[in-house]
Amino acid sequence: MATAPANNAHGAETRRDFIFIASGAAAAVGTAATIWPFIDQMNPAADTLAMSTTEVDLSAIELGQQIKVMWQGKPVFVRHRTPSEVDAARRDDYANLKDPQHDADRLLQEDGQPGRAEWLILEASCTHLGCVPTFVTGSSFGGWFCPCHGSDYDTSGRIRRGPAPKNLVPAPYVFTGDTSIRIG
Amino acid sequence: MSGHSTYEPKSGFTRWLDKRLPIIRMAHDSFVAYPTPRNLNYWYTFGAMLALCLVVQIVTGVVLAMHYVPHINMAFASVQRIDRDVPYGWLIQNIHSVGASMFFLAVYIHMFKGLYYGSYKAPREVLWILGCVIYFLMIATAFLGYSLPWGQMSFWAATVITNLIGALPMIGESIKNWLMGGFSVDQPTLNRFFSLHYLLPFVIAGVVALHVWALHETGQNNPTGVEVKSKADTVPFTPHATIKDLFATALFLILFAVFVFYMPDALGHADNYIPANPLQTPPEIVPEWYLLPFYAILRAFDFNIGPIDSKLAGVLAMFASIGVLFVLPWLDTSRVRSMRYRPAARQFFLIFVVVCLVLGWCGGQNPGRVLAQSGDFTATLRWVEGGAVSARAFSAPSEEQFDETAAGMRETATTEGAAMTMVSRSNATDARMMSVVGGTPQTQTVSARTIEALEEAVQEAKAEIGARAPFFVTERASPMAFTVTRLSQVATFYYFLFFLVLLPLLGLRETPGRVPDTIAKPIGGQTQEAA
Amino acid sequence: MLRALTVAAAVFVAAAGVAFAAGEAEHPHDHPFSFDSPIRGYDMAAVQRGFQVYNQVCSTCHSMAHLSYRHLGEEGGPFAAYMARNHETGEEEMVVGKPAHGGRFVTVTENPYVRAIASAVTISDIDPASGQPMDRPGRVSDHFRSPFPNEIAARAANGGAYPPDLSVITSARHGGADYIYSLLVGYTGEVDGALYGNRYFAGGKIAMPPPLAEGAVAYADGSPTTVEQYAADVTTFLQWAADPHMEARKRMGIIVISFLLVLAGLLYLAYKQVWRGESH
């Protein structure tokens, strides 16, 4: 006799707890789901994502010169390397590199085709803290030097000395003709 | 009501914190232990919804400000970019624009609730006034925000409202230019409106904190208007009031979601999808629905009152219609708080609510629209058949003397036997008078429902009579017409009558209904059975 | 008592909305569009045909400055492409429109349909080498080409009338899509100087000559090439352009409202539990 009311009370308690837990859980799920759009809105918007590819006409760049073009709001080096720069880059493929990489791999086009040795396309952003390195003829490794914290890159844009941890990043590109490339 | 605190810190950390910053104690006393009258109905849940609305508006607004560009050439396009390209931008923008309407919907219900249950009376005057301050800030914020998308309605609403302030005598023009940062609504205006629209919600949040503070100091009113007598009349805020507020808020959110997801533009105006054009005003300017009653009051004044011209009178009345709320605690003389026990006042209150809705309706209508007229428009054509017609040109010596000269000419013609004369003026001083001698005078009356139809009927009648009449003299009569403006005037009159005459007089003269003893006395006995 | 007031308030809000729809012109014809329903999406074939009509007819005078070619290929756009497995051949192939059994969305820059549409357009730009104005083929990120460089040029070329931008035209007109459709089929045939009789335009006369003629645009899918069909298609396209996220919005609405109904139900039960046995 005495157990029956206790069971009832226990049943009511279970039911009550279930309702409270279910409402709390539902409210928590709803809140979490609501937060997502407010976080996601800070991601790059559709117009930024589809920012145009950049076409570059190579015919105007003379041997030993480079231009900077803007791609997705970032500067990109398009360098017309001299044979001696190419030689230096290949020679150092097996040097003691901080971030070992072959020059030929750094020239690969976006579609996997090999690039052309005289054309080097790199994102112009030092891998240390993002400054734009300067090409300094006669610098220690013959390539780029970052004015901010003194990172030295060679003629393939590989890091050789200084605080930067990685090589300059090759920009994705393809040859669209003999003298034109498309970046992105 | 703010008795001593019942908070007891349980852990070592909370005891440590409580000695240094008793913030948990404050939250506990305000939102957990705070005693709430047992008999609060669902009309008392709108305060929670309003808090939610403010948070939603601030959060969505801060997010939108990350993408919005306050520049006259880019604002419209940046809103389009939010709607099209920003991840979930369409959702956040819809929530913000619909949220403004939801905020006002909730605040109006909250205010009518306060009016009905007498929540503005002693000792809650400051609580009520802080609420009025919040409401006024809400209007200002909503107006500033409405101008930001820089559509046609944005631009012209900004122009019209800044011009309202220009109606003030002497200083109006200077204040107007100071507000706009120029001589028209332009880039400086948009930029400062954006800044202020960002600022004011935080001011509102501050005043809300004061509002809640004042509420917790005096304790909540309740539908009977009789102060709670003992602890037995109350329940702790959490969980009792919290759960009820949450349930009501969930229902409110369903309405909110229906608008956001299925009719995001239903409460807006199509013209705001046209980029602002300072060279062209849209055919009709209307504010957002929640400001329509004030717009109706503004437009109700189409007449000058002594030295106050109609424009200034409208502006003053509009501000007074909000201002009167601030002094309401001292206008209502009744000792009984809740209208539940004031049968006469309740009738006038119901009329007042209807009047507010009518004002809102009027605000959205063309002010000249005829709602009822006493009869038809009529025109009486008079002409003379078969007389001798003569025409004579004349000039008045000056423009001022024209009427005099024309009357003289007519009189001369009449004494010479003319049956009918007509003067057609060609410029300030020159005119031609036609007169006809002899013949048979004729008349014909035409009538029509509208003035346009009447003009058509007159043209038809003239064509029918044709050459039989050398010329016509037409007398038009308009029926008494009851326009939207007249209705607004009646409604505006009642609006002020309610606050300034009815509430003060009723309190002195009415016989309040009897408050049942069960309410007037503590209900401690009844709660025992519940426990 | 106060319950009656909420009803009154709802009626009032509805009436205020109706009151804005004033005008002397004929009330727009209520055309049955797919997007009228609270759950249905766009008839994407109609949006595609409508884009064709816009591209070949409307775009000679009307800009759509807030749209870019990429929008056509984004998810929910008329030319959104997906890689899906063909069940008969087992090959991965590109299809337009989301396949029923799912598929991998093709990013807009890779979408061949959108690339073809964009590159067929000539865009005025600045030559990065010389700094001089030049023409180049369009890219997917370009905004829809505007037929006139500015409003003055547009007015000068159209006898003083300004062909409005069509980006959000169905939102910017009372009556929305029904009005646009009615306007396009509402020409009476009367001509008064440079104005054309139109039953649905305020004032009855519009500066835009009848834009659509039977057979003017050739449809590849065999749809009838009548003025009514063109008008319905281009209106559907314009509605999509003004409200590109409608489908996502309606889908999310169902989820959110269902969730809120469940939450409200649970909270009601919780409320009843908390107040059980309390007098109030």
What does it look like?
The complex is a heterotrimer of chains A (184), B (531) and C (280). Chain A has helices spanning 3-40, 46-49, 83-91, 103-106; strands spanning 54-57, 66-71, 74-80, 119-123, 134-135, 142-145, 152-154, 159-161, 173-177, 180-183. By secondary structure, chain A is α+β, with helices and mostly antiparallel strands. Chain A has 2 domains: 1-43; 49-183, Rieske Iron-sulfur Protein (3-layer Sandwich). A 4-stranded antiparallel beta sheet of chain A has the order 5-6-7-8. In chain A, a hairpin with a 6-residue loop joins β5 (134-135) and β6. The relative contact order of chain A is 0.15. Among the domains of chain B are: 294-374 and 481-531, no CATH class; 377-479, no CATH class. Chain B has helices at residues 12-20, 23-31, 46-65, 75-84, 89-116, 125-147, 152-165, 172-180, 187-218, 237-262, 292-300, 310-331, 343-363, 402-415, 451-465, 484-509, 517-520, 524-530, and strands at 35-37, 234-236, 370-373, 377-385, 388-395, 418-425, 430-437, 440-448, 473-477, 481-483. In chain B, α3 packs antiparallel against α9 and α6 (125-147) packs antiparallel against α9. The longest helix of chain B is centred in the middle third of the chain and has 32 residues, at 187-218. Chain C folds into 3 domains: 23-63 and 148-244, Cytochrome c-like domain (Cytochrome Bc1 Complex, Chain D, domain 2), CATH 1.10.760; 68-142, no CATH class; 247-280. Chain C contains 8 helices and 8 strands. In chain C, the strands form 3 sheets. Chain C has a 3-stranded antiparallel beta sheet, with no helix packed on it. The interface between B and C is large, with 66 and 53 residues.
Shape verdict of chain C: globular
- Can you tell me the overall shape of chain B? elongated
Strand order of the largest sheet of chain C: 2-1-3
Class from secondary-structure proportions of chain B = mainly alpha
Radius of gyration of chain B: 32 Å
Supply Rg of chain C. 24 Å
Taking all residues together, what is the mean pLDDT of chain B? 90
CATH superfamily descriptor of the largest domain in chain C: Cytochrome c-like domain
| Low-pLDDT stretches of chain C | 1-23
What portion of residues of chain B belong to β-strands?
A: 5-15%
Helix content of chain C: 25-40%
Kindly, what is the distance between the CA atoms of the first and last residues of chain C, rounded to a whole number of angstroms?
A: 19 Å
The tally of strands of chain B reads: 10
Query: Could you say which structural class the secondary elements and strand pairing of chain C correspond to?
Result: alpha+beta
